[in-house]
Amino acid sequence: MRKIIYPALIIIVIIAIPFGFGFLVGNSFDVEIEDSEQEEKATLVEKILAPIIRKETPAQKPLPNPPKVINGIYLTAWSAANSGTISNVIRLAQDSEINAVIMDIKDFTGVLSYETDIPELKKYNAQENRIKDVNGVIKKLHDAGIYVIARMTVFQDPVLSTARPDLAIHDITKISSSTPISVETLWLDNHDVGWIDPASREAWEYTANIAKDAASRGFDEINFDYIRFPSDAGIENTYFFSWDENTRRETAIKNFFEYIRQELAGTKISADIFGQTTVTYGNDMGIGQVIEDAYEYFDAVAPMIYPSHYVKSFLGFENSAEHPYEVVHYSMEHAKRRLKAMSTTTQARSAIRPWLQDFDLEVPYTEEMVRDQIRATKDAMGDDYAGYLLWDPSNTYTWEALKNDAPQEEIQN
Fold it and tell me: DSSP per residue over 245-284, as a string?
């Protein structure tokens, strides 16, 4: 009986404290409370009780001694939510050079993959309990010595663009005197996904709030993806509320970089950028991304060097996808050279940690091809080697290519 009574009493006391026990003692406290004060107290109670109701593991701390070289694999939110998958990753990592996991907390759907108390996310119905106990997942990985990165898409966001059309990019061909700007006039990419105006300050704040929540839970690093202007599906028809179209695209993106660095001071952050930015000089590729701008503000920069995503004739090849070592080595050499040149005049201290390909596109990707990309990264970076991240949307990795004879302890030191 006591086992039932004591927890109940504790919860009652927790609820009662913010309200001064007034509701427990009838009219003894006949105090008029303003609506705003009631809302504040109700929010406080919700914050106290929400983790209990959700049965969450307490928030974690980042790894006290994180590895200097980060070799990671990507997991969707659904994979991260599966305890069997996490256990399998931990088991396989022990016999490989993998010492990190990067998991989706906000993917292309625009939905946060776990529940929070962030008001905007509740208001916009922008969160789902895909990962029931995200703190517990972090703890399980940390207990195995695995570095945990939270990945979130930023300006590709169908949920926020639908909930807040005033923050979104619109299609000028859909706007008319009879069809004012609304959800109906949203610009959609090739996947019918809405985008946020990259210059929207309010959207920046929305992103920062999510990132801060993730950092407070013990993620070792926050990774930002889709930090760019869109690149497909009739971009000549785009209409912006915040971006004035006179400001250069790269300036608008760089302003976001500076903002997110200031908002997350003291937190490790990384940026995903197009792989071709490593070898493109003098322009932003029309999407606002210049690799030097990312170097200036992020702890790590992750160019997506997927050989299958380069033009087939890159470096004079008939099909660049068939030449993973050459494509990755060439791109990483240029990325390193540009960082070295920049570090002589600025305080840029970024690590370069590329995304590498472990999926079939154009050609089947074999164990040897995965290994070639890793070898190319190590060869190009030399003493500046900082690791890599492997991407496979199905999360089925070529573990044989990741084998390492060195003990796991040596990988982390």
Answer: SSS-HHHHHHHHHHHHHHHTTTS-EEEEEEGGGGT--SS-
Residue (of 198, 168, 344, 217) closest to 259 by Cα position: 198
- The kind and range of the H/E element at 375 are helix 367-381
Owner of token pair 């300006």: 155
Tell me the C-alpha distance between 151 and 96, whole Å: 23
Q: Any idea what DSSP says for residue 115?
A: -
Band (pLDDT 50/70/90 cuts) for residue 4 is: very low
Phi/psi at 247 (5° precision): -65, 135
Q: For 223-244, b where at least 16 C-beta lie within 10 A, e where not — what string? A: bbbbbbbbeebeeeebbbebbe
Tokens of 175: 């706007």
Q: What is the DSSP letter of 407?
A: -
Q: Residue 295 in contact with residue 350, Cβ under 8 Å?
A: yes
Burial class (CB in 10 A: 0-12, 13-18, 19+), 39: exposed
* Distance of alpha carbon 376 from alpha carbon 180, whole angstroms: 52
Q: Give the dihedral of Cα atoms 195, 197, 198, 203; nearest 10 deg.
A: -90
CA distance 68 to 268: 13
* Class of CATH domain 63-411: alpha beta
Q: With bands split at pLDDT 50, 70 and 90, how would you rate the model's confidence at 57?
A: very high
Q: What is the pLDDT of residues 160-176, one digit of tens each?
A: 999 999 999 999 999 99
Cβ atoms within 10 Å, residue 375 = 16
Q: Which two tokens stand for residue 390?
A: 């492997």
Average pLDDT over residues 294-310: 95
Total residues belonging to the chain: 413
Beta strands in 161-211 (DSSP E): 170-171
Q: Which amino acid is at 90?
A: I
Q: Answer with the residue of higher pLDDT: 2 or 404.
A: 404
Calculate the dihedral angle through the C-alpha atoms of 384, 385, 387, 393, rounding to the nearest 10 degrees.
100
pLDDT digits (tens, 9 = 90+) for 304-347: 999 998 888 898 898 999 999 999 999 999 999 999 998 766 66
Per-residue confidence band for 36, with pLDDT thresholds at 50, 70 and 90: low
**Euclidean distance between CA atoms 400 and 368, whole angstroms:** 9
Q: What is the pLDDT of residue 334?
A: 97
Count of Cβ atoms closer than 10 Å to residue 88 Cβ: 13
CATH 3.20.20.80 residue spans of the chain? 63-411
